[in-house]
Design a protein that fits this description.
Oligomer: heterodimer
Number of strands of chain A: 7
Strand order of the largest sheet of chain A: 4-3-2-1-7
CATH architecture of chain A: Alpha-Beta Barrel
Radius of gyration of chain A: 19 Å
Number of domains of chain A: 1
Protein name (chain B): Aldehyde dehydrogenase family 16 member A1
Strand content of chain A: 5-15%
Largest sheet of chain A: 5 strands, parallel
Structural class of chain A: alpha/beta
CATH superfamily of chain A: Aldolase class I
CATH topology of the largest domain in chain B: Aldehyde Dehydrogenase, Chain A, domain 1
Family (chain B): Belongs to the aldehyde dehydrogenase family.
Strand content of chain B: 15-25%
Organism (chain B): Pipistrellus kuhlii
Largest sheet of chain B: 5 strands, mixed
Structural class of chain B: alpha/beta
InterPro entries (chain B): Ald_DH/histidinol_DH (IPR016161), Ald_DH_C (IPR016163), Ald_DH_N (IPR016162), Aldehyde_DH (IPR011408), Aldehyde_DH_dom (IPR015590)
Pfam families (chain B): Aldedh (PF00171)
Number of helices of chain B: 27
Number of strands of chain B: 29
Strand order of the largest sheet of chain B: 15-16-29-23-22
Distance between the termini of chain A: 25 Å
CATH superfamily of the largest domain in chain B: Aldehyde Dehydrogenase, Chain A, domain 1
Distance between the termini of chain B: 54 Å
C-alpha cells in the first residue's frame, strides 16, 4: 500500500463544481480501447504487468479451505514457469497483487499462503459486503475481526445511502463497484473516477489508488485498463500500490495469451493449471 | 528457447511500461500498386488511362520518403477526354429512375466494405494520417455517406420533384485532403444523377482507387472519373464545355484557435497540456498512434509559424520529444501571443493550437466572429443558456456544443465567409447539384473580352435632357438610404425616359460613396432585424403589402408610362402585393431538427440570414422583380441594399415611400444609378455578405469575379431572363434556398 491518504478538510465546493460531459466520456471510453494496442513482446510484458495488479478473488458462498488454498497457490505461481523463462521473466517474482476473500475465509488464505511461504497480502471484503446495509457497529467489528485474522487490506463497501444524500467518505483506494452488481467496472465510469483521483492529486498532492472490479475477464480487457490508467493518470499509477484489478477468471486468459506468445500455439484447456 | 530468452525484451518493457510499435501491414496497398506496375495513370470511363509523353510525379511515403509509385500528370486533352466520358455517362445515369441509382450506390458501398483494408492502408500510407482515424472513422463514414445518398436517390422523384441534375460536375481537390472530403462531394452529385470528373492533386492515390472500385461495378463506368494533375489544370477543367459546376475545397486540416475564459485559464491550460503530453506522434500505419505526419511542406509551415510566434513573444508548449530532423511535428500549444501580432491574425497551421484568453462570453463571440473564416466551431460550457446563445451567435457553418468534429451524412456541413458557401450532406448538399424547376442548364457565357479593371468604372455624365413630363406628385428625389431620401454623394442625376422616349423624370445618380453609406446603414439595421421573430417580420411585410395595395393606382400608372398594358400593369401590382404576403407567411418555420446515429440528442438545422444582401434588379418587371427579390430576402432576416431597374427605377422609389413609414430605418436601402457602376461597388465591397445579380451576362461574370475577394455567395443569372410572373421564377424554392444560409447546431444529451 502507498502511504495513507491523510485526508483533507471537506470542501463541498469541489464536488459541486464537478461537471461530467457524458457523451464526451463515452467517446473517450470507446477511443481508448481502439487507439492503444500493444503487440508482440509489448503485449506479453504488459500482460505480465497486469498479473501483478490482480487481486485474485474468490467470493463464493461455497468457498472452502481447498479452493482457497488452490487460489493462493495460483496467486504465487500465476504463470507457468517455463513460459516465464522463455520471456526471461522467471526471476522477477511475478505474483498477483493479493488474494481477496470473504472475512470468514481470511484465516484459510493466510494459512495457505504461509504454507506456501508466500508474502502476498490477503485482502478481505468487509462491512456487510456487497450491500453495505448493516449497522456501523457490526461493520467496524467485521473489519476488526478480519484484521485480527491477518487481512492486510480491507475493501470497504461504503454506505451508499450517505453518498446519495450528499454525505461523503474518504479513502485510500476507490473501487468501481463490488463486482456483484448488474453493471460493474465500465470504462466511462472509470474515466470519471480516474479524473477525480487526478484532481485530488493536483489539489492535495495525495495519490489515491484505483481498483476496477467485476467483469474483467479477457487479457485484451486488462490491456485496455492498463492503457486507460497510463493515459489518464500516468505511469506512476501503474504499480500495485495504486492500481488493482479485482478478477477471478482474468488470470487464466492472460496465461493462455502468454502461452500463445511463447509457443505460437493456442493452449488446450489441460495445458494450463486451473486456479 | 534459450535464444529467445536472451533476446527477450520483456523485462525491459515490464519495467518501463512503454508502448511498442503496432504496425499495420500495408502489403495489400503495395500489391495494388504493383497491379499498375507502380505507375498510376488516370481512371476514366472504367478504364485506366495511361497516355504517352506525360510528366510523372513521384508519390512518396511522407514518413520514410520511400518512393511508392509514379503518377502521370494529366494535360488539357486528358481533361477533355474525362469530361467527354462523364458527358457520355450522364445521359444514361441521369435518365435512370432514382431507385436504380440508389441500387448502384448501395453496391458501391458494399464494394468499399469488401476492400476496406486496402482503402484504409493506402490512405494512411500515402497521406501519413493515423490509420485508426481512417479505419475507425473515415471508412465507416464513407459507407454511411453512400447509404444515406442511396436513400435520397430512392426518394428523389417525390422529395425533389422537378429538380434536375446539373450535369457534369468538376471536383478540384486540394494538395492535402482526406478521401472522405471527396466522398462528401461525389455522393450527393452521383445520387441526384450528375456525373463527376475529379482533379486530384499530383500524387494522390486513394481517389484513383475509389474510381476503380466504382468502375469495377460494371455498369455506368463513366460516372466517376479521376485525373491526377497540377493545380493549374483546374482552369482547364472549369473552362471545359459541358462542365456545369466546379466544386473545390481548400486544405482541410488547419490548426485550431482556442478561446478560454480568464477565470478557468490556468486550469484549462494545465489539463490541455496534460492531455497533449499523452498524444503519440508517429508513423500513420501504426495502430497506436494519434497523429501521423503530413509531409515536408506541412511540417515547414508549422515550423515557420512556431518560430515567428516565438519571436513575437508567444509561449510555446510542445508535447513529447519529436526529433528535429524527423518528418513529424509535435502537437503544439501557442499562448501569450499579443492579439495584434501578425501571428495572431494569420491562419494557424496544423498541428498547432493557438490559445487566447477572454473575459466575457460577449467578448469571445466578437473575437470568434472577427476572422474571415467560418467553417466550424465548438462551444464548451455547462451553462446551457450561454452555450446556445453563443451557438446561435457564431457566424460559422457548424457549431458543436460540448463536442467537436462530429459528422453525419444527414447533417449539412458548410461554412460562411471565406470558408465558402457550399454544403455537403443533408438536403442542402443535394441542392448543390440540382437545377431548380424551370431553369435551363447554364450556358457557357465566359467572355475573354471583359476587362475587370474597367468594367463599370466610369459613370456617364448626365446633362439636362429636356422638360420633365412625369406625373405629379413626383416621387421624392434622392436615394433611399437609412430610412429616408438623401441626395447622392456625387450630386448628379440621371434622366429616366418613358416608353415613348420622353423624359419621365430624374433620379439620383448613386456612386461608391452612396453604396458605402447604404451598406453601413444596412449593417446597423441588421442586429435589430435578425432579433425580430419570424412573426414580427411577417407582420411588417404584410403592413408593406397593405400600403402597396393603397398605392395601386399610382404604381399601375407608372408602369403604364413604361409601356405596360393597363391590365398587365394592374396584374403586376396585385401580384407584387401577393408576393409580400406569401413570403411573410413563409418566414415562419424555417428550421428543423435532425436525428443522427453518432449522437444522442438533436442536431438543429438552422436557417440564418446571410447578413447584408445586395440585390441588383433586372430591367424587366420593374416592380414585380423588385418586390419578388426583396420579400424573400427580408423574410429570412437579411437587410438589403437594392439597385432597382436601371431603365425604370421609379416604381421602386414609389414603394420606398411606404417603406420609409413602415419599416425600420436601414432595413431596405435603394440606390439608383448606373447598374454596372453600382454592381462594381457592391461586388468589390468586402462587407457585403451576399450578392444577387440579375443584369447582363457581362455583369454576371464581373460580379462572380469580383465577389471572389471575400468569397461572398453570388447568385448571378448570366443574363438569362427570369419568369417573374410565374410561381417557379418569382417565388420558387431557389429564392428560399438563396436567401438564407444553413447552420448545423449539434446538441449532445447526457445525464
Amino acid at each position: 500500500m502507498s502511504p495513507r491518504n491523510p485526508g483533507t478538510e471537506l470542501d463541498l465546493s469541489w464536488i459541486s463544481k464537478v461537471q461530467v460531459n457524458q457523451p464526451a466520456v463515452l467517446r473517450r471510453a470507446q477511443q481508448i480501447q481502439a487507439r492503444r494496442t500493444v503487440k508482440k513482446e509489448w503485449q506479453a510484458a504488459w500482460l505480465l504487468k497486469a498479473v501483478t495488479f490482480i487481486d485474485l478473488t474468490t467470493l463464493s458462498g461455497d468457498d472452502t479451505y481447498s479452493n482457497i488454498q488452490r487460489l493462493c497457490y495460483k496467486a504465487k505461481y500465476p504463470i507457468r514457469k517455463d513460459l516465464l523463462e522463455a520471456l526471461n521473466m522467471h526471476d522477477k517474482g511475478i505474483t498477483t497483487a493479493a488474494v481477496c476473500v470473504y472475512p470468514a475465509r481470511v484465516c484459510d488464505a493466510v494459512k495457505a499462503l504461509q504454507v506456501a511461504s508466500c508474502h502476498i497480502p490477503v485482502a478481505s471484503v468487509a462491512t456487510g459486503f456487497p450491500a453495505g446495509q448493516t449497522h456501523l457497529k457490526t461493520r467496524l467489528e467485521e473489519i476488526k475481526l478480519a484484521v485480527e485474522d491477518g487481512a492486510m487490506e480491507i475493501d470497504v463497501v461504503i454506505n451508499r445511502t450517505l453518498v446519495l444524500t450528499g454525505q461523503w467518505e474518504g479513502s485510500d483506494f476507490i473501487k468501481t463497484s463490488t463486482g456483484k452488481e448488474t453493471v460493474n467496472a465500465t470504462f466511462p465510469v472509470a474515466i470519471v473516477m480516474l479524473r477525480a483521483i487526478r484532481d485530488f492529486f493536483w489539489k492535495t498532492g495525495n495519490k489515491v489508488g484505483f481498483k476496477p472490479a467485476g467483469g474483467i475477464r479477457s487479457a485484451k480487457d486488462s490491456l485496455a485498463w492498463l492503457s486507460l490508467i497510463k493515459e489518464e493518470l500516468g505511469d506512476e499509477w501503474l504499480k500495485p500500490e495504486l492500481f488493482r484489478i479485482g478478477a477471478s477468471a482474468l488470470l487464466s486468459d492472460i496465461e493462455r495469451q502468454i502461452y500463445h506468445h511463447v509457443t505460437g500455439r493456442y493452449a488446450a484447456y489441460h495445458d494450463l493449471p486451473m486456479c | 528457447m534459450a535464444a529467445t530468452r536472451a533476446e527477450s525484451r520483456a523485462p525491459e518493457i515490464f519495467a518501463t511500461m512503454e508502448y511498442g510499435p503496432a504496425p499495420e501491414s500495408h502489403a495489400c496497398a503495395l500489391a495494388w500498386l504493383d497491379t499498375q506496375d507502380r505507375c498510376l495513370g488516370h481512371y476514366v470511363s472504367g478504364k485506366w488511362l495511361k497516355p504517352e509523353n506525360r510528366k510523372s510525379v513521384p508519390c512518396q511515403d511522407p514518413v520514410t520518403g520511400e518512393g511508392l509509385a509514379s503518377c502521370l500528370q494529366a494535360q488539357a486533352e486528358d481533361v477533355a477526354a474525362a469530361v467527354e466520358a462523364a458527358r457520355a455517362a450522364l445521359e444514361s445515369w441521369s435518365g435512370l429512375p432514382g431507385a436504380s441509382r440508389a441500387k448502384h450506390l448501395t453496391r458501391l458501398a458494399k464494394m468499399i466494405q469488401k476492400h476496406q483494408r486496402l482503402l484504409w492502408t493506402l490512405e494512411s500510407l500515402v497521406t501519413g494520417r493515423a490509420v485508426r482515424e481512417v479505419r475507425d472513422r473515415d471508412v465507416p463514414l464513407a459507407q454511411q455517406l453512400l447509404q444515406y445518398h442511396a436513400v435520397q436517390a430512392h426518394i428523389q422523384e417525390e422529395a425533389l420533384a422537378g429538380w434536375e441534375p446539373m450535369g457534369v460536375i468538376g471536383l478540384i481537390l486540394p494538395p492535402t485532403f482526406s478521401f472522405l472530403e471527396m466522398m462528401w462531394r461525389i455522393c450527393p452529385a452521383l445520387a441526384v444523377g450528375c456525373t463527376v470528373v475529379v482533379l486530384a492533386p499530383p500524387a494522390s492515390l486513394t481517389p484513383l482507387l475509389l474510381a476503380q472500385l466504382a468502375g469495377e461495378l460494371g455498369q455506368f463506368p463513366g460516372i466517376l472519373n479521376v485525373l491526377s494533375g497540377p493545380a493549374a489544370l483546374a482552369l482547364a477543367l472549369a473552362a471545359q464545355p459541358g462542365v456545369q459546376k466546379v466544386a473545390f475545397c481548400g486544405a482541410i486540416e488547419g490548426g485550431l484557435r482556442l478561446l478560454i475564459q480568464e477565470s478557468v485559464w490556468d486550469e484549462a491550460m494545465r489539463r490541455l497540456q496534460a492531455r497533449m503530453a499523452r498524444l503519440r506522434v508517429g508513423r500513420g500505419l501504426d495502430g497506436a498512434v494519434d497523429m501521423g505526419a503530413r509531409g515536408a511542406a506541412a511540417r515547414e509551415l508549422a515550423q515557420r509559424y512556431e518560430q515567428e510566434a516565438l519571436s513575437q513573444g508567444a509561449q510555446v508548449f510542445q508535447a513529447g520529444d519529436v526529433p528535429l530532423d524527423s518528418p513529424f511535428f509535435p502537437p503544439t500549444l501557442v499562448s501569450e501571443l499579443p492579439p495584434s501580432s501578425p501571428c495572431a491574425q494569420a491562419e494557424v497551421p496544423w498541428p498547432l493550437v493557438l490559445a487566447s484568453p477572454f473575459r466575457t462570453a460577449k467578448e469571445a463571440l466578437a473575437v470568434a466572429n472577427g476572422t474571415p473564416r467560418g467553417g466550424g466551431a465548438s462551444v464548451w460550457s455547462e451553462r446551457l443558456g450561454q452555450a446556445l446563445e453563443l451557438g446561435y451567435g457564431l457566424r460559422v457553418g457548424t457549431v458543436w456544443i460540448n463536442a467537436h468534429g462530429l459528422r453525419d451524412p444527414a447533417v449539412p456541413a458548410g461554412g460562411c465567409k471565406e470558408s465558402g458557401s457550399s454544403w455537403h450532406g443533408g438536403l442542402d448538399g443535394l441542392y448543390e447539384y440540382l437545377r431548380p424547376p424551370g431553369t435551363p442548364p447554364r450556358r457557357p457565357c465566359h467572355s475573354q473580352d471583359l476587362n475587370y479593371d474597367t468594367f463599370g468604372l466610369a459613370v456617364p455624365s448626365a446633362l439636362p435632357a429636356g422638360p420633365e413630363t412625369g406625373p405629379s406628385p413626383a416621387p421624392p428625389y434622392g436615394l433611399f438610404v437609412g430610412g429616408r431620401f438623401q441626395a447622392p454623394g456625387a450630386r448628379s442625376s440621371r434622366p429616366i425616359r418613358d416608353a415613348q422616349g420622353n423624359l419621365h423624370g430624374y433620379v439620383a445618380e448613386g456612386g461608391a460613396k452612396d453604396i458605402r453609406v447604404a451598406v453601413e446603414a444596412a449593417h446597423q439595421a441588421a442586429p435589430g432585424w435578425v432579433g425580430q421573430s419570424p412573426g414580427a417580420r411577417a407582420a411588417l411585410l404584410w403592413a408593406l403589402a397593405a400600403a402597396l395595395e393603397c398605392r395601386e393606382p399610382a404604381l399601375a400608372s407608372r408602369l403604364q408610362r413604361h409601356g405596360v398594358q393597363p391590365k398587365a400593369a394592374q396584374a403586376e401590382v396585385e401580384l407584387s402585393v401577393r408576393r409580400l404576403r406569401a413570403w411573410g407567411a413563409r418566414a415562419q418555420a424555417q428550421s428543423h431538427s435532425l436525428q443522427v446515429a453518432e449522437l444522442r440528442g438533436p442536431v438543429l438545422r438552422l436557417r440564418e440570414p446571410l447578413g447584408v444582401l445586395a440585390i441588383v434588379c433586372p430591367d424587366e418587371c420593374p416592380l414585380l422583380a423588385f418586390v419578388s427579390l426583396l420579400a424573400p430576402a427580408l423574410a429570412h432576416g437579411n437587410t438589403v441594399v437594392v439597385v432597382p431597374s436601371e431603365t425604370c427605377p421609379i416604381p421602386a422609389l414609389e414603394v420606398c415611400q411606404d417603406m420609409a413609414s413602415s419599416l425600420p430605418a436601414g432595413l431596405v436601402n435603394v440606390v439608383t444609378g448606373d447598374r454596372d457602376h453600382l454592381t462594381r461597388c457592391l461586388a468589390l465591397h468586402q462587407d457585403v455578405q451576399a450578392l444577387w445579380y440579375f443584369g447582363s451576362a457581362q455583369g454576371s461574370q464581373f460580379a462572380e469575379w469580383a465577389s471572389a475577394g471575400n468569397l461572398k455567395p453570388v447568385w448571378a443569372k448570366g443574363g438569362c431572363p427570369q419568369a417573374w410572373d410565374q410561381e417557379a421564377g418569382g417565388a420558387g424554392p431557389e429564392l428560399e434556398l438563396r436567401a438564407a444560409r444553413t447552420k448545423a447546431l449539434w446538441l449532445p444529451m447526457g445525464d
